[in-house]
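We close this part of the discussion by returning to an individual protein. The encoding preserves chain order, so positions in sequence and tokens coincide. The sequence in question and its structure tokens are set out directly beneath this paragraph:

===
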Amino acid sequence: MGISEELRLAPPVAPGPTVPAVSLATLALLFLRIGCSSVGGFMAMVAVTQHMVVDKRRLLSTEDLLDGLALASLMPGPVAINVVAYVGYRLRGVAGAVVCMLGAVLPAFVWICALGTLYFRYGNMDAVRTVFLGVTPAITAVVLASAWRLWRGAVRDWRQGALALGAALLLTALPGLPSTLLVLAAAAWTGWKYPRPALAAGAPAPATDANAAPAAPAHRQQQGGDDAAAPTPRPRRRAATALAALGLPAAALALLAAHSAVLFTLLCAFAGMSLLTFGGGYVFIPLLQHTVVDGYGWLSQREFVDGLALTQLSPGPVMISSAFVGLKVAGLAGAAAASAGMFIPSAALMLAASGMVERLRRSAPAQAALAGVRAALAGMVFGAAVTIGRMAAPSWLSLALGGAALLALLRWRVDAAWVVAAAALLGWLAL
């Protein structure tokens, strides 16, 4: 009997320990902090989420977060916000997903609207860049620290180490969706074809923080007694609930926007772009340019480039540039309509597909494939750290701030939000 046959006959992997209960208010404050300290693209937000949710508070396991990242990498829309929605859903269901998304997006939305208002009034924001001289090295350190912790949790043998190293090298040299899909496919096949002995034998994973997977979202475990042991809703019912709950705000906004052709057009245009964008924010830039500059003429080429620069100086995902475009077209209401179109549809799809991850955890062959994918994702985070680090100013100050931030994160476990804030202040004072 071959390994593939053994895997088919292996019993399901036993669920890990339950995740601790957490209130919606706590999640809102936590993700507001994450949103404020996630400068540098989607992987920066993923890294800060991993630091805050997994390392500091142990609300989820490393493997659970990596599973969400793997699914988000295959879904349309902003990867970081899809991961945030997944984390919120795992902790408190659809309500948790909505709260976490709002907390993560709100700081970037407010920041872009404030900077955009100043930009459209004065036309120059070069002075703001000085504040962020120290932010890029600090965010690079946050991503590196996250990659190291993910590596320790996901890499267990030389094959997984080779997958992680190969993913880091390939994604550094050839970033983009094709490379990401190639890495994930190769990692899944390698993990399935050459499983670790424990997975091949169908043994449950050890209940450690590095590889424990929650049995059910925490909002179901808070009820206690018989309710805590109740079966989870069927996947179709859960998908319908997720789509309805996240679709209601979009539908309400659509009805309001129907009274304004411009707001309705913004909502639909960015919803379409959200569902057509695979691979993260930087893949979204060419589509955004074609739509808002060449198609609708909402921005000039100079305004488009300056808007992207402002998003690099703001916390949160690159796709918050939707708020910049909406602000130019229809003020604050336009910014809200464009942002809702950008983030809500893809997040609803992400939650509808989250049941796939829970089903995969009950399959030994899928667990073997996911082990390979998790190792590759750890390497991809290393590659993202290199990409972000290249954006830092080439100076001794960047090296010093990055080294100090990495030491604070790994040695003293300082909160990432404080590390980023201190680096921003030091970078501004050094000028």
